[in-house]
Design brief:
Length: about 120
Amino acid sequence: MPADTNPYGGVFGGWLMAQMALGAGSLASRVGQGKAVVVSATDFAFPGAMAVGDELSVYCDVLATGTTSLTIAAEAIARERNGEATTLVAKGTFKFVLIGDDGRPRAVGVDPTLLLPKEN
């Protein structure tokens, strides 16, 4: 929306990062089977531009698991509003720590089937 634009009229990179963090956080919570909080965001690039009104899709994959953490790659792809053309507009890596009911980090305990690539 227009409120999410930079002074030049393009979609603000910070808004894209926030949408990517939401997508990656959803995957972290599902794979980790509980609360997950982002602790770092790295390796961001914005190779394309997104226009106001474009549709955004965020795709995420688990890159690594640690004792209490998940590292997740995220890609943001924009589809033009009135067509089918798509553009990679952002990519980056998030690290999440899983949190227990006591508010402290907890072991990952990942269901390995959630980490396998999906077959068509």
